Amino acid sequence: MKNINSRYAWFCLFFLSIFLMGCQEDKVVITKADYTDAEYEVLARTLNLPRERADYSVTLPLHMARQGATAPAVSSAKATLGAVLFYDTKLSANNTVSCASCHKQSLAFSDDVALSKGFNGELTKRNSLALGSAPNFEVSYNGNSVSSQGAAFFWDERAHTIQEQSILTLQDDIEMGMDLDELKNRLESIPYYNILFTKAYGSGAVTPDRVTEALQEFINGFISGTSRFDEGLNRSTGDPFANFAEFTAQENLGKTLFNTNCSSCHGADFTSVVETVANNGLDLEYTDQGIGARTRLDFDNGKFKVPFLRNIALTGPYMHDGRFATLEEVIDHYSEGIQAHENLDIRLKTNFQFHGEPLKMNFTEEEKAALVAFLHTLTDYQFIQDERFADPFK
Ligand code: HEC
Ligand code: HEC
What whole-number distance in Å separates Cα of residue 389 and Cα of residue 385? Predict the structure, then answer.
């Protein structure tokens, strides 16, 4: 009986494989190519795009999915267009800078200078922000988009979506200086854009809405979730406060210190922030008032977006003005340097009180090194090497 079964199984397997081989051959013929030969020939003159379009749909790390998070639905045709736009210097007035000039993939889409150079060589007013943190990109929890709960874009949170951010950046006098009519004319005259806009939107028409939506779709795919920290959280019970088996004793010590002193604003799971904006006592008097410069309210002076710390070891220099070159300097600030600014957040005051003094965390050298070691576990090497996010220009 057993014998017959196994002979029968081999027989089936034999025919199944012949059948599959047939399908394989067929598959090459019947696969719906994303581009015709003629289209691909045009694209390939300038761009290194895969013949079969890359899949930009997002898989969230287990620990985020377990919390009920859902990833934004990304259209691969729009994200492919977005990738090209992101790396194209033609999006700036004099064809000199692209989004990627100030948001470099190897640096988790941040820049390695305090202030970045715009299209005319002028410096940006603030430090470039890293891209690639889940809560930035409309990951939603049980249907509630985190963005709509208050997270927003730029150091002063003046934009609420990446589309809004992009339209401001494109036209910014320092960053890209682009006129939107000129952008339309320029891009519509380029054959590869005609193909890519048609694939994404059904026609080659270039509108500001399409440009910024495609950029948003591309950036929505930047969910960095494969750092050692993520792996630790995936494998543990999902409790960021528990020690991770795969961390060294030093990294676990750093994690504990972070959870005690820092997570009240920055969040313990690096998926959502607890506080969206705060004053962290960098100065007694700020030259850049941050949110206050926008709202003109005294109690907003010196408040800035609480930045997401994913990939933080790659995104220095740090703070809105890039004043700290290293993570060690950042830790020294929190340890001994917090200033008694009138809007200093109570989490950084003694006894958690409005009238408290600036906290002195007074970390030992060993604790400082542990905090830095922990922050390094947030680096996601897969994300910064992901081909789908790389420069598509030849
Ligand atoms: C000349 C440098 C430069 C260029 C070019 C540039 N950016 Fe930025 N980007 C910055 C700086 C600086 C900030 C922070 C500015 C601020 O907060 O006022 C920033 C902030 C952002 C943010 C907000 C991130 C957050 O967490 O709040 C996003 C998103 C972004 N840029 C995307 C883009 C896109 C898309 C493009 C291309 C259309 C682009 N940037 C072009 C320098 C640049
Ligand atoms: C009261 C809320 C709060 C607490 C608590 C807090 N931070 Fe911050 N953190 C901020 C804000 C706000 C900024 C941005 C400030 C600015 O640029 O003006 C920031 C910036 C940073 C940056 C720079 C990020 C970047 O992209 O430039 C790092 C790193 C950092 N914090 C780490 C820590 C660590 C480590 C601790 C604990 C020792 C901590 N923070 C505690 C609010 C907080």
Answer: 8
Ligand 2 centroid distance, CA of 280 (Å): 7
Render pLDDT for 81-117 as a digit per residue (tens, 0 to 9): 999 999 999 999 999 999 999 999 999 999 999 999 9
Residues 359-370: tens digit of each pLDDT: 999 999 999 999
Tokens of 217: 């779709």
Q: How far apart are CA 84 and CA 87, in angstroms?
A: 5
Cβ(289)–Cβ(343) below 8 Å: no
Question: Is-cis flag, bond preceding 317, omega within 30?
Answer: yes
Distance from Cα 306 to the centre of ligand 2, integer Å: 6
User: What are 306-324's pLDDT values in tens digits?
Assistant: 998 999 999 999 999 999 9
| Residue 310 token pair | 């994913």
Contact at 8 Å (CB) between 198 and 35?
A: no
CA-nearest residue for atom 34, ligand 1, is 99
Nearest of 254, 183, 253, 192 to residue 212 by alpha carbon = 183
Contacts of 317 (CB under 8 A, 6+ apart): 112, 113, 114, 127, 323, 324, 325
Of the candidates 303, 309, 203, 198, the residue with the CA atom closest to the CA atom of residue 262: 309
- Which residues have a Cβ under 8 Å from the Cβ of 281 and sit 6 or more positions away? 337, 338, 339, 340, 341, 344, 345, 348, 358
Cα–ligand 2 centroid distance for 263 (angstroms): 10
From the CB of 76, is ligand 2 less than 6 Å away?
no
Q: Is 275's C-beta closer than 6 angstroms to any atom of ligand 2?
A: yes
Give CA–CA dist 286/273, Å, rounded: 24
